Amino acid sequence: MATPIRRALLSVSDKTGLVDFAKALADQDVELLSTGGTFKALKEAGIPVIEVSSHTGFPEIMDGRVKTLHPKIHGGLLALRDNDEHVAAMDEHGIAPIDLLAVNLYPFESTVAAGADFDTCIENIDIGGPAMIRASAKNWQGVVTVVDVEDYDAVLEEMKLNNGGTTETFRKRMSATAYARTGAYDAAISNWYTSQLDIEYPKRKVFAGELKQTMRYGENSHQSAAFYVTGENRPGVATAEQLNGKELSYNNVNDTDAAFELVSEFQDDNACVIVKHANPCGVAVGDNLTDAYLRAYSCDTESAFGGIVAFNKTLDGKTAEELSKIFLEVVIAPEIDEEALSILSGKKNVRVLRTGGMPTPADTAAMVKTMSGGHLIQSKDNQIFSDDFKVVTERQPTEAEMKDLRFAFTVCKHVKSNAIVYCKNNMTVGVGAGQMSRVNSCRIAAFRAEQAAKTAGENESWAKGSVVASDAFFPFADGLIEAAEAGATAVIQPGGSIRDEEVIAAANERGLAMVMTGMRHFRH
Question: Catalytic site residue 138?
Fold first, then answer.
């Protein structure tokens, strides 16, 4: 049985759709109560409305901090209509039932995002709104709670189907939505407050997100999945505008984030990253984006098929022409010119994303991993080299080798451990990812360098004259020896093994230059 709506309280910060919603309620003889700016907007629109202070007999005080915190409001929201004692209390104290509450909260999240000062952020913490939302949502039996402007039409449609009332199922659903909103709001306040106090790991940590997309399935077809966003104003897949192609899948989002985070490391160069299964299979910088892409693609033409391609500069038509020659899942760039978009639009399935900017690699963030019974949280890996960066071999790297070593170690940071990356002339030539044994990653990367040369029609492995990066120390000299035998001339690794001297000696014996960075980059 539907519960009729006879009285509604509207108090909203976001006035989008307010007047139309209120008019539709008034046309169904719903008495409207309202506060402050909402009351003013409805009054100016000629909609009959009663100010809350008139309804309660108590004025707004303390600059509006106290206006709805009153028994005639909370009693009207909380009273159980089928409870004789509650009804008697309402009659005794002149409390009228409120059947619908529409509240959206002070814009705390956007105030913080805009960089407001501490006091301004505090003043944008809503008190009365969450209190009313929690009260009405608790009393779902008699009250429908609306916290999103997108739900106004759904409420009106529900009333239309139920002679001006709402069903139990609908009210329960709206109640769940309401509690999710207050939970997310409190999470935003809590996380902001602890950040202001430099408390990295508080006693209680709250996570919240807003649903952006429900996906057809997750990592595999038998898994369900959805994409939630935090509202953080950081360019990337979560904030990107999709200009072309099918809906993003779970794996698309995961891989695209990996690709864009890596390409953002190369702020000053024209860079391209190609990712497959969250690992880079080709990375390069070039004189222009076309050059960067062709160099990255040449590293592993097999794995690039069906991959994700990320750029750090505006994508142009010439580069888009090259991209259109193979099957790709996603292309992402900060900007995409009209010619490039026109070309890629001819590939109806390729997802084209424009982020509007590049993220800053040094940004701080919390990285969260879910496991049975809890969450593991760590700070973002937002550095590459430590101050302990030093050459440890008899031979110093040449200027060209040093440039490649820095490039290789930057890429290696974004490869799943155990990670080995061969690079030459500011491009990857072989990537060994995700092996349980570091020496096997060395062998795989060398094999990929041989295959890249063969694909290019060359007889000599691209590992010859390359440099090699390792994401963690070599526990034995065998990995370094594999690299030397493949043709590498210089090595970069964190160091820190009890056998560092053995590894250094092996490098010296083979005439290799080696740098130790003092910073490890495990990635799982």
Answer: yes
